[in-house]
Amino acid sequence: MHNYIKITVLLLIIGLLVSYKNQITKQELTIQVENNQNFSRNEVVEIPYEKFSGLLKSTDQENIRVKKQGSQDYLITQWMDSDSDGVTDALLFQVEVAANSSAKYVVLIDSKNPVKETKAITFSRLVPERTDDYTWENDKVAFRTYGPEAQRRIEENEYGGTLSSGIDLWLKRVEYSIIDKWYAKNLETEGYYHMDHGEGYDPYHVGKSRGTGGLGIWENDSLYVSKNFIACRTLATGPLRTIFELDYAPWSDYNVKETKRISLDLGCNFSKFEITLNAEKEVPNYTIGITLHDGKGKVKLNQQEGWFRHWESINNTYVGEGIIIEPNKVQKAFNHQSQIPDQSQVLLVAKPQEVLTYYAGFAW
Questions:
Q1: Pfam families recorded for this chain (predicted)?
Q2: Could you tell me which of 125, 136, 122 has the C-alpha nearest to residue 168?
Q3: How far apart are CA 46 and CA 227, in angstroms?
Q4: 118-145 pLDDT, tens per residue?
């Protein structure tokens, strides 16, 4: 997970080698990636754009290549403009580093040899053909949440609506993108993606719960939540990281204005949530939830280390949902049981803050 479990990136060498015989200028940047954990890591790393200034003076971004030292195969890369200001911020590439070890990667210029394509990518988009879900995925997992048209249909008693700001989970069996295919098939056969056709399916029920990672405010033994998002912006689709933002109408008695920035990296089971929050009155807390569905799953809360999980059986398969957050942001966490449908949930109560950052995701 980018930015939470830290990978140290050290810029070692910027070498300028000139062959006067062939009049060829070669520039390379060697990057050492350190893994200080006791398990191997396969993750996306982000290198600030300014570190490549020496390489970019004589070429454009399209000719930058990255490979593991000693390998001849180029890695998939992605240039990022995280704030959509038209200026490139960083270069992404995926690294593989053994436990308590380091690995070196070489960044160079090559205008002749392309990077091999891969089916394993990240992707996200608004889906107006299925009311207006916003759906995102990578090679391991997929998620969705719901927009204003889905809300309008519920409020006006029309068919096909959903009223929820919870996070839905799609269980994938394949590395390639399935969003476009599953929604297209659902237009032909309603409920298509609720059945497993060999690529996975959506058996996860959200309803009015928080799903996995939805936000709220816990006060007087009650959970207050927003309605559906009212606007969305896709900032990046991949292939290594997808990023988008969702805006919500002011909600609760505190008139909270909320913008979710959600990102998902290739190879990662957890989405990163960076939520900007502004309220007219002082808010007591912000609460992140995981639905308990029928209440038969197993809950584990580790407030000291900042992780919270639920392990349950769904249609004879097992799904483990989790939230990870910096421990010092947490006030308390508890298993809330309710007789009201969709309201039995793991609730993580976080201290009020202007930007709330956490990870939420699953495995199955």
A1: DUF4861
A2: 136
A3: 34
A4: 999 999 999 999 999 999 999 999 999 9
